[in-house]
Write a structure and sequence with these properties.
Elements: E1 2-5, H1 11-24, H2 40-43, E2 50-56, E3 59-70, E4 73-81, H3 90-105, E5 108-114, H4 118-126, E6 130-135, E7 138-144
Parallel strand pairs: 4-5
Antiparallel strand pairs: 1-2, 2-3, 3-4, 5-7, 6-7
């Protein structure tokens, strides 16, 4: 198993993976909100961000991303792990890859998650993020880097 940076060969597989995890967690596909998945390179890499993929035997089993928000700020997002691969540290590894990239390139990181995702919330709090806002079941976090 290893984390690799996104490349175009993973385009359709990454999109399908993320949408599959979302649907498996009971979240609907949103064509507007999820449009970034149609052009990962253009939405992340070409604008100073990053997108990471966790591969196991050539299969995508996890993702994380960093999106440039301008003015030294970024958003860590798209942290997903295939259900049967959870509990093995993959999510933490993916999160730390995104956080490490963020620390090297930005002064402030934001992220958000659904209030029901307790494991993700724990990872964020354990790594120094603070809840800055709660709105309609979504928690918003921030951290100076």
């Amino acid at each position: 198993m290893n984390i690799v940076p996104f490349s175009s060969e993973y385009s359709s597989g990454t999109r399908d993976f993320v949408i599959g995890v979302l649907l498996g967690e009971g979240f609907d596909y949103d064509p507007l909100k999820d449009s970034d998945l149609n052009d990962i390179e253009g939405n992340y890499l070409l604008h100073g961000g990053a997108f990471f993929i966790y591969l196991y035997n050539g299969e995508i089993v996890g993702t994380s991303a960093v999106k440039d928000l301008g003015s030294g700020h970024c958003e860590i997002k798209r942290l997903y792990v295939k259900e049967e691969c959870r509990g093995k540290g993959l999510g933490l590894s993916l999160f730390l890859a995104a956080l490490d990239f963020s620390k090297k390139n930005y002064s402030f990181a934001k992220l958000k998650t659904d209030k029901s995702l307790k494991k993700a919330i724990s990872i964020y709090l354990d790594n120094g993020f603070e809840i800055v806002k709660e709105d309609a079941g979504t928690l918003y976090f921030g951290k100076s880097l």
